[in-house]
Every structure is written in C-alpha cells, then in structure tokens.
Amino acid sequence: MFPTPIDKTSRSWQLTYQALLPIALVLWLLPLLAVAVFSIKPDADFTTGNYWGLPTSFELLENYGKVFFASDMPRYMLNSVLITVPTMVGCVVLSSMTGFALGIYKFKSNLWIFFMFVAGNFVPFQILMVPVRDITLDMGLYNTIPGLVLFHIAFQTGFCTLFMRNFIRALPFDLIEVARVEGVAEWRIFWYVVLPLMKPALAAMAVLIFTFIWNDFFWAIVLTQGAESQPVTAGITSFNAQYRAAYHLMSAGSIVAALPPVAMFFLMQKHFIAGLTLGAVK
Prior knowledge:
The protein is mainly α. Helix 1 (11-38) crosses helix 13 (247-267) and helix 3 (60-69) crosses helix 13. The model has no long low-confidence stretch (mean pLDDT 87). The protein has helices at residues 11-38, 43-47, 60-69, 73-104, 110-119, 125-139, 145-169, 173-181, 186-197, 199-214, 218-223, 232-235, 247-267, 269-277.
C-alpha cells in the first residue's frame, strides 16, 4: 500500500534514484532558471531573437533598477502586502474559531455545517467569476483592496476551517474536560488551552494562505484594475507595451514578486513542517 523507503530498496535502485534526483531537480527548476536568465538580459536580445542564448551583456542592475525606480512595481508590491496580510490574519482568526466550534462542540447540525464549509472548496472559481464581479460592483467594492481582501477571506475560510477542525479534533479532549470541571469559561478554554496547542497549525496555515493569496492571479485581474489596487501578480503585465512585451522587465519583476513567499516559507519552515506532520503518528 505504501512505497518502500529508499534505504530499504536494492542497491541498484538506490543508485538509480541518486542519479535521477538531480535531473528531476534541474527539470523542476528549469523554468525559474530561464526567467532568472531573462531578467539579466538586455532588451536588444529579445528584439534580435536571442531568447535562449547567452546574454550579449549583463544588465542586472539596469533591469532591476527600472523595476524598482522606473515603474509602478513598488506600488504593486505594497498592494500585495495590504491584500495578503489582512487576508492571512482574517482567515487564521476565523478558521481557528470555527474549527474550535466544529471540533469541540457536538450539536445536531455540526456535520452539516462542516460539509457546507468543505463543499465550498469544490466550486470552481471560474463559475463564480461573473456573479462575484457583479456583487463587487453593486456593493462598491470593485477595484478596491478591501473588496479583494473580503472575497479572499470568504473563499479561503472553508479550507482553513477544514484544516483547523481536523487538527483540533486530534488534540487530547481530556484537557478541555478538566478545564470545564474547574469552571473555566468556554472562551478562556479556547484562548488559554486550545489556542497555545494550535500554534504549529496556525503557523502552517499562515504560510499556506500567504502563498495562496500572494500568488493569486485570477481574482487579481477579475476584481481589480490599475496600479491603485492591483497586486503584483497582475501588475507584472504592465510591462507589456502596445506592440511588444518587455520580457526582461517582466522576468525581473517576476523574480522580485517570487521572493516574499519564498522568504516567508524559509522563515516559518520549522513551524510549517511541524504543523503539517503533528498528529501524523501516534
């Protein structure tokens, strides 16, 4: 049922695995490496068709300087921060409370409410595109950062609740019963008993939501337009001129846009892995 660990396979398969692993890694990183090379090429290489050859000159400082100082990229980056951080906080706060309610309290419609949260994850966003856009127009939230934040929270809370509820149900219930016997209020049980035990899950969820929202492109182009509210994923397309795309600037902007989620993951790597693996074994 489960794959055999590499260290328990035959010597020939171990050598094959060690030989194929670097190849798979290179293939996985090849698009990123291509974008990184594009970001240091001069514009003349693209006009002359030198897409895959070596750069005729290295324009690292010039290309990245234009991205930061001669474009709206800093504004797009700020918009992404203003969208991603409130969404991450809102999703973590709401899902921790809904996960606590659905994981601890046993009432008649508990399972049906949980199914409603889960069912929302199976609705394709493309089906919701037109009605959601109409709602934002009617509510005056179209092309605004708060509007995008609210809809991101609405769409992500279902998955977060599923994650948090399953994590809370794996916690020792005896701790909660002991606190109730001592007369501790329910909100104090949540705040002082359950929430400290949820720190690995909260960290893992924060990293996932940060990555999801920062890299979102679909809702960024559906619900926003212009530098005043668009995040960086949609703002990179501003380097497209009327007749030709500035591939060197788009590549540099893409590298810059990819750095925050990568940095977020490495800063929270320890807590992220602990949150995903906690409860996997008894």
